[in-house]
Amino acid sequence: MKAAALVIGMGFGFVLGWARLTDYDVIHDMLLLRRFDVFMMIGTAVATAAIFARLLRAANARSLVGGELITWTSISPTRNHVTGSVLFGLGWALSGTCPGPVAAQLGRGQLAGLFTFAGILAGVALFGYIKRRREAAATAPRATELVGRPEPGL
Q: How many Å apart are CA 64 and CA 108, to the nearest integer?
């Protein structure tokens, strides 16, 4: 299974590099609406994935890793989805890449990928920090709940 994943990952990285999706100028031109071929490639990938994911779910297929039934539930977008999308888009616009091509950039020896990879790690760490702080604040007793309680040890 690991060998198959390695071969698929290397193939994906090769296609990204071959299509020049690891080049900042190509992504920059796409974001400035000068290169519609990149949009066509992304659209084709999304359509293919959507069709085959639905076919797998309809066939009651199981995942190759873990053997779980392929299924999902749809939810309405929330503020977190919008915020995450905006942050992802800003990072993409600034760096000219996203997580898939960053791995291909590193594999190709493009040093710019190191900065984007560092940004991805920093973003994940910041998200974890904010999430832990919010969870701690949600479970901490509020000041109004402490009023009237005797001090410990008195």
A: 29
Angle between helices 2-18 and 99-108 (to 10 degrees): 90
pLDDT, one tens digit per residue, over 26-75 is: 888 988 999 999 899 889 999 999 999 999 999 999 988 788 999 999 89
Cβ atoms of 100 and 89 closer than 8 Å: no
Total domains present in the chain: 1
Structural domain includes residue 106: yes
> Are the C-beta atoms of 16 and 22 separated by less than 8 Å?
yes
Expressed in angstroms, the distance from the first to the final Cα of the chain is 63
**Domain assignment present for 153:** no
Range of the domain at 57: 2-141
For residue 18, give both structure tokens: 């071959």
Whole-angstrom Cα distance, residue 128 to residue 134?
Answer: 10
Answer yes or no: is 154 within a domain.
no
Structural contact between residues 73 and 66, judged by C-beta atoms closer than 8 angstroms: no
Those residues with Cβ within 8 angstroms of residue 92's Cβ, 6 or more apart along the chain or in another chain: 27, 31, 98
Please tell me whether the overall predicted TM-score, pTM, comes out greater than 0.85 for this model.
Answer: no
